[in-house]
Amino acid sequence: MLPSLLLALGLIVSFDAHAIDVDMGIQAPDGAAPPALVIAPKRPVAELHAEITAGGKTYTFDHSNVAAGKQLVLAWDRNTAVTEAQAALRIVYQDGYVDELTVPIEYAYAGELAVDLSRASADLEAHTVQVAVSERVERAEITVYGARKAVLNQSEVALDAGPGTITVPWEGDPAEVVLLDITLHGAAAWTGFTYSPWFLDIPHDDVLFDSNSDAIAASEEHKLQSTLRQLNEVIEKYGEVVPVKLYIAGCTDTVGDASHNRELSRRRAKAIARWLRDHGYDRPIYYHGFGEGLLKVATGDGVDEVRNRRALYMVGANPPPAGSGVPRVNWTAL
């Protein structure tokens, strides 16, 4: 993450900074510092190629073997007459997955209002998104997008909040809202950002594993074939709005040692993730073993309850948000 990175005054981006496997932000052109795009990958990168066009000039950057979390500062010439740039990025991760995107940017050389997206979060039950801001915010303009980027709602709300963490309300059915485009207005400055609270559970028949095993039997593969078809339908409907990520949560019943069950559920979740990858699912996959931590049916210790031996399949642009029923954890990328 980039805990100290602030998006510059007046920044407008057309992507969700948490939807791909890198953290991004704009280094504000304060003092004598030039404007810059700051990138920190969340997982190892084999190659990164960037072309940033500003003021009629193109600046090219190439990096290889970038460790997860390392910050790359891609700066261009300081020119107060130029307040727009466009970055074309191609990122090849060590596992072979490729992200390609174009980022249009607007920025300014004066003003103080900035927003920190490094710990942004959404609450589906409350219909809110929380971000940190550097100065007081008077109001927010919010556009809510649904599937295929259909506009679901446009509103303006008074906030009178900040500096620090502020809460921005949004309207719409959480099952339909895919992307929020938010512009914050202070007394003499403004800034904009996008964030996706989108989250879906994928209904499915649970794969049945043999006791203490993470091997997927051939007789169970038809269940994953059905899941794969559903995932491809999700990509067709939402993939043009936000990058779709799959999160697989492994769960167990209460028979056996809790620590062992967490590891067993992790291996089973990874086995399902690996099967989907091997059978053509090419979007990012993350997994985690919750063991006895997400019981579908509450039981005492040592109870053989088949309904608790399950896996959850969830898709979203970000990890499962508050209100999803899944706690915040450090998901592992396949």
Sum this structure up briefly.
The chain is mainly beta. It contains 2 helices and 19 strands.
Q: Roughly how much helix do the residues carry, as a percent range?
A: 10-25%
Order of helices and strands: EEEEEEEEEEEEEEEHEHEEE
Describe the main β-sheet briefly.
5 strands, mixed
Please work out how many helical segments DSSP would assign.
2
Category from helices, strands and their pairing: mainly beta
- Give the amount of beta strand, in percent: 35-45%
Q: Which regions have little confidence, pLDDT < 50, spanning 5+ residues?
A: 1-19
Distance between the termini: 19 Å
Gross geometry: globular
Calculate the mean pLDDT score and round it: 85
Rg, nearest Å: 22 Å
| Strand arrangement in the largest pleated sheet | 15-18-16-17-19
**What's the β-strand tally?**
19
Task: Write up what this structure looks like.
The chain is mostly beta strands. It has helices spanning about 220-240, 260-280; strands at about 20-25, 35-40, 45-55, 55-65, 70-75, 85-95, 100-105, 115-125, 130-135, 135-145, 150-160, 165-170, 180-185, 190-195, 200, 245-250, 285-290, 310-315, 330-334.
